[in-house]
Amino acid sequence: MIANIVSSAQTKPQTPFGLVYEDAITENVNGKVNIHPVTYELNGIDIAANVYTPANYDASKKYPAVVVAHPNGGIKEQTAGLYAQRLAEAGYITIAADAAYQGASGGEPRHTDKPAYRIEDIHGMADFISRYPGVDASRLGVLGICGGGGYTLKAAQSDKRFKAVATLSMFNSGEVRRNGFQNSQLNTIQERLKQASDARAQESAGGKIIYGGVVANIADEEIDKIPTDLYREGYVYYYKTHAHPNSTFLYTMSSLLDLMTWDATTNMDLIDQPLLMMAGSKADTKYMTDEAFSKAVNAKRKELFLIDGATHIQTYWKPEYVSKAVTKLVGFFGENLRR
Question: pLDDT per position in the chain (339 positions), as tens?
Fold first, then answer.
């Protein structure tokens, strides 16, 4: 089974910009979409990001812009970069940044994964791209993918610079860390909170940092046995077909103190911007999108768009599903970020 998944997915080597998605930019060419690696400081931490500019970009003109937030464990060179590039091809200036403490961004201890930090990352991308030459800050949108989708919903509740809000394959990190995927760990919540508390105590005493998550050297046979599409296909995507050395599923165990008490769907009534939520019709994570969407009672012109036949991970890379999502996004942002 895994051989079929690998053979049909994107397996090109990394480009000079480190991008690992299909048809990634290999060099900046005049008159075409270009990529601009940038760094900026956010709360004392250096953030690594890529800005994509449209074909024939002219800094003296004004363009709408879109912030793209990456999945849990992901980085800017994977699906976040793919969607940022596709939106740039449609005329937007876009930015995809590595979360603080993750990827090529700074922050210690590494792989800290706290909701407040991820939400601040999105505000920080808005800060930076709003001042970028050629950006019309009054036409700013945001797209969050997987875990980045959950954090995007929370960021957009308060940050009204975002005039249009979109998610793809939204993943509610707090709910899953608390209850388990598909509510599979309800009976161990207190036990896992105790583990997180102990990990925090060990860190504060100067002891070894304890990490949760998964390792990269899992055997193909073990991947085949994983019953859920999300994690089975996720292993293949992140560790085989679209692997990148900066991308891991690790997180500090102490991060669970924050994650397990957080939920992406609280205060959804604060979103009053236009809202588009997209999910694969076969995604085993679709229940999270459904829950959040139903609570967005004040969102203007909200729409739930199902990508027919797609699983969660397939929306990251499979050309026919990416094309459907991008077409929908271009229409949505085009309608809601008009001058």
Answer: 333 333 233 334 457 899 999 999 999 999 999 999 999 999 999 999 999 999 999 999 999 999 999 999 999 999 999 999 999 999 999 999 999 999 999 999 999 999 999 999 999 999 999 999 999 999 999 999 999 999 999 999 999 999 999 999 999 999 999 999 999 999 999 999 999 999 999 999 999 999 988 766 788 888 899 999 999 999 999 999 999 999 988 999 999 999 999 999 999 999 999 999 999 999 999 999 999 999 999 999 999 999 999 999 999 999 999 999 999 999 999 999 986
Sketch the domain layout of the chain as residue ranges.
2-172+214-249+263-333
> DSSP string of 66-133?
EEEEPPTT--TTTHHHHHHHHHHHTT-EEEEEPPTTSTTS--SSTT---HHHHHHHHHHHHHHHHTST
Residue 162, amino acid? F
Tell me the residue type at 146.
C
The C-alpha atoms of residue 95 and residue 120 are separated, in whole angstroms, by 15
| pTM higher than 0.85 | yes
Encoded amino acid at 18, one letter? G
Task: Work out whether strand 274-280 and strand 300-307 pair parallel, antiparallel, or are unpaired.
Answer: parallel
For the 2-172+214-249+263-333 domain, the top CATH level (class) is: alpha beta
